[in-house]
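Input chain follows. Return structure tokens only.
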Amino acid sequence: MLAHNGRLAFHPARLSCQPRSPTMTTPASAIREEVSELIEDQIEVFGQPSRLTSSELLECHYRAERIKELGQELDRIGRTTVLEKRFGKAA
């Protein structure tokens, strides 16, 4: 999941807000999938028997920050969905 520059490669295109269709994933499901992958990466790294290198610690920090950002985005999507159901979609 590292880009050629040593930093984590994130895929903002996975978070696009395109209309739902039966064959497409929703933005929320794409976010949940990315969070799941990031958590799996964290578990794998922390399960190593050796000490983490500085770059591995930095990667863990990037993943943790990304997980936090994605959680905030899921919260925003959830709030928007609730408001739309209560008050109808904005015209």
